[in-house]
Design brief:
Length: about 100
């Protein structure tokens, strides 16, 4: 895995490398609204993880997950951690927690 200084830098490079979809957490799955794609935990793998800690601003605490589906589609999920973390479904927590 690469080392990035900023979230922006990571997202820009991941996009260049084919991680072009943007995912959000929806109950028990990841959702990409731009392509109407929904992936449950068994349908994708997390290929890279990058954690960013805002030294002066807690809003900058985030984790970027590079994700690839079994069909070869690629995208990213940006998730807050700490007090800003999203409530998640148990299966999704297990999948993401392994990589935190």
């Amino acid at each position: 895995m690469k080392i990035y200084d900023t979230l922006y830098e990571a997202l820009k490079d991941l996009n260049k490398r084919g991680y072009t979809l943007n995912f959000n957490i929806k109950n028990d799955h990841l959702a990409c609204q731009e392509k109407d794609i929904y992936w449950h935990p068994e349908e994708y793998e997390i290929t890279e993880v990058y954690r960013f800690e805002g030294m002066t601003d807690p809003d900058e605490q985030s984790i970027v997950y590079a994700i690839e589906s079994k069909d070869g589609d690629r995208g990213v999920l940006i998730s807050a951690y700490g007090i800003y973390a999203d409530p998640l479904n148990d299966d999704l927590v297990k999948k993401l927690h392994i990589h935190r």
